[in-house]
Amino acid sequence: MKPVNDIISPDLDVLFIGFNPSIKSSETGHHFANRSNRFWKILHESGLTPYQYLPEQDQELLELNYGLTNIVARPTKAADEITKEEYNEGRLLLAEKLQTYQPKIACYVGKGVYEQLAKKKKIPWGIQETSVVPGIIDFVAPSSSGLVRMKLNEIVDIYKLVNKQLTELQQ
C-alpha cells in the first residue's frame, strides 16, 4: 500500500485532518476515495465547496485555500487497525506540520483524530477551548466515514460551523 500525498501549503484557511488513508485512497492516490465516505458530500452541503468535488479533484481544494492530511500515513481498512506507535509518531509529525504550515483552522475529521493529537477525552464538537498549536483554531468535526451512525444532516450542521468561523475570520 502506498501513502496518499498531503495537499498542503502555508497559511491555508482550513487544513482537514483525517485518521489515515483508506485502501481505496491508497489505490487511487486521492483522499477520501472510498465510495462509502461522505467527505465530499459533507463539504458541499455545508457550503464549504461550491459543488460536490470528486476524490480525483482533491488537489483543487488548494484553490479554495483548503488542504488535506492525516495523522497516520499508512492506509488501512479501518482506523482501529492503526497502532499506538503509529499514533505516537503521527502526533509528532502532525504537530510539526501545523507549526510549519500555520493553517487558520485545523479541522479534525473525527473526534478520535483530535483525541490522539491532544491526548484528551470528553471533546465537544466544534472549536476547542485551547489549541494544540497556538494561533491555530482547533475544530473537531464528526468523521465522514459511512460507518458513523450520526445522521448526515447533523454532521453537515457541524461542518457549517467551520464555514461560519471562516466568514468571521475574514471580517
From TrEMBL:
MF (Gene Ontology): hydrolase activity, acting on glycosyl bonds
EC number: 3.2.2.28
UniProt domain Uracil-DNA glycosylase-like: residue ranges: 8-156
Domain of life: Bacteria
Alphabetical list of InterPro entries matching this protein: MUG/TDG, Uracil-DNA_glycosylase-like, Uracil-DNA_glycosylase-like_sf
Top EC category: hydrolase
Keywords recorded for this protein, A-Z: DNA damage, DNA repair, Glycosidase, Hydrolase
NCBIfam families the record matches: PRK10201.1
PANTHER family recorded: G/T AND G/U MISMATCH-SPECIFIC DNA GLYCOSYLASE, G_T MISMATCH-SPECIFIC THYMINE DNA GLYCOSYLASE
Name under which the protein is recorded: G/U mismatch-specific DNA glycosylase
Provenance organism: Cytobacillus gottheilii
Gene name of the record: mug
